User: Which sequence fits this backbone?
C-alpha cells in the first residue's frame, strides 16, 4: 500500500513538473488585451484563446489566465512595444464618432474604450469629455525561452504567405520583426512562432487567400465572398474557436473575389483602342545610392537589400517598371528607358 502511495505521489509530481514546463499563469492587469499579453509572452492570441475560451468575451482585471510555454529561440529578442505615456482630454464635437476620433488620434476604438470604460455600455454624446491615451514606443529585450524561432523566406513568399503558414496575422508577424521591410527577400531570416512542423500550414495554389479587413464579420464576408460561416470554418480549421480578426488570412475557393466583384461587369479591351505606337522616352529616378555599395561583394549587396528599406523599394519599383515596359513591347509600343 505504501509503495502504491509513493508511486502515485511520484506520478503526480511528474505531471505537475511537466505542466509547469509547458504552461504558466498570468494575472490580467487593467488595460491589458489578449494581443498585448501574447506579444509580451511571444505567443499568438490563438494559443491563449485555445486554453482560455472565456477570454473571447473580454478580459477582466485580476483574472488568471493560462499561458502556453513560449516556443521561441533561447537567445534574447528585441521587440518594440507601445506603452501609455499620458492622456489628453478631448471634448466630443457634433457629428463626431468613436471611429472618427480614433482615426484623428491614430489609435483604435478599443484604446479609447479601454480608458473610458463607460463607453462599453453608453453611447458617445456631444459635449462628453473623454481621455485619449498617448503612446510611446519602447524597445524591450525579451528573454523568454522556446517561443519563436528563425525562418528562412522561400521563393514567392510574402508577408501574408508566411503569416498564414504560422497561423498569425500580418500585423503579428511585423511585431515579431520590428525592422521588417515591406518586401521579403529570398533567404532572409525572420522570427516566427515556434510551432511544430505538422502545425505549419501549406499554401495550396488550388485555393485563393483573403486577408480579413478591420470590422469585418461573417455576415460581411458572406456578402463579399458568398460564403457561409460554416463553409469558411470548414476551409479554415480552428476559425470557429478563434473567431475572425483583422489581418487574419483565410483560405477561400480560388478566384472567388474576382468572380463576385466582376459579375455582370462588361469588359472593355483597352489594347484594341491603342493608336499611338511611336517610341516613348521614359525617365525613372530612384534612390539606389549605389556609391554606398561594394558592387564586387555579393554578400554586402544582399545585406544592403535586407537592411535598407529604400533600396528594397527601389529595386521592386525598378522591376515593376521593366515588367510594364515588357508588356508595352508585347503590344507593339517601343520605349527608351533612362534610369
Assistant:
Amino acid at each position: 500500500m505504501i509503495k502504491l502511495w509513493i508511486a502515485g505521489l511520484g506520478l503526480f509530481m511528474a505531471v505537475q513538473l511537466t505542466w509547469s514546463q509547458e504552461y504558466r499563469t498570468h494575472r490580467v492587469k487593467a488595460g491589458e488585451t489578449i494581443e498585448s499579453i501574447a506579444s509580451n509572452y511571444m505567443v499568438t492570441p490563438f494559443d491563449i484563446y485555445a486554453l482560455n475560451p472565456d477570454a473571447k468575451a473580454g478580459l477582466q482585471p485580476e483574472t488568471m489566465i493560462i499561458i502556453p510555454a513560449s516556443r521561441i529561440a533561447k537567445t534574447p529578442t528585441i521587440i518594440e512595444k507601445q506603452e501609455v505615456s499620458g492622456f489628453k482630454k478631448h471634448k466630443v464635437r457634433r457629428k463626431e464618432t468613436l471611429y472618427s476620433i480614433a482615426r484623428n488620434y491614430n489609435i483604435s476604438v478599443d484604446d479609447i474604450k479601454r480608458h473610458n470604460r463607460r463607453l462599453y455600455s453608453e453611447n458617445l454624446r456631444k459635449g462628453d469629455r473623454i481621455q485619449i491615451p498617448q503612446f510611446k514606443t519602447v524597445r524591450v529585450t525579451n528573454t523568454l525561452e522556446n517561443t519563436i524561432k528563425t525562418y528562412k523566406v522561400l521563393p514567392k513568399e510574402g508577408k501574408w504567405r508566411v503569416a498564414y503558414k504560422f497561423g498569425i496575422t500580418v500585423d503579428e508577424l511585423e511585431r515579431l520583426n520590428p525592422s521588417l521591410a515591406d518586401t521579403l527577400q529570398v533567404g532572409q531570416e525572420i522570427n516566427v512562432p515556434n510551432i511544430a512542423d505538422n502545425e505549419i500550414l501549406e499554401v495550396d495554389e488550388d485555393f485563393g487567400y483573403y486577408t480579413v479587413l478591420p470590422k469585418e464579420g461573417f455576415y460581411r464576408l458572406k456578402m463579399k465572398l458568398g460564403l457561409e460561416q460554416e463553409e469558411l470554418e470548414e476551409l479554415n480549421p480552428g476559425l470557429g474557436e478563434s473567431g475572425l480578426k483583422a489581418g487574419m488570412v483565410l483560405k477561400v475557393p480560388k478566384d472567388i473575389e474576382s468572380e463576385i466583384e466582376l459579375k455582370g461587369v462588361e469588359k472593355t479591351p483597352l489594347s484594341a483602342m491603342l493608336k499611338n505606337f511611336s517610341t516613348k522616352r521614359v525617365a525613372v529616378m530612384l534612390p539606389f545610392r549605389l556609391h554606398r555599395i561594394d558592387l564586387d561583394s555579393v554578400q554586402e549587396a544582399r545585406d544592403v537589400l535586407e537592411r535598407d528599406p529604400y533600396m528594397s523599394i527601389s529595386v521592386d519599383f525598378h522591376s515593376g517598371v521593366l515588367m510594364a515596359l515588357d508588356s508595352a513591347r508585347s503590344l507593339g509600343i517601343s520605349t527608351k528607358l533612362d534610369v
Residues 270-338 form one domain. The CA atoms of residues 158 and 184 lie 6 Å apart.
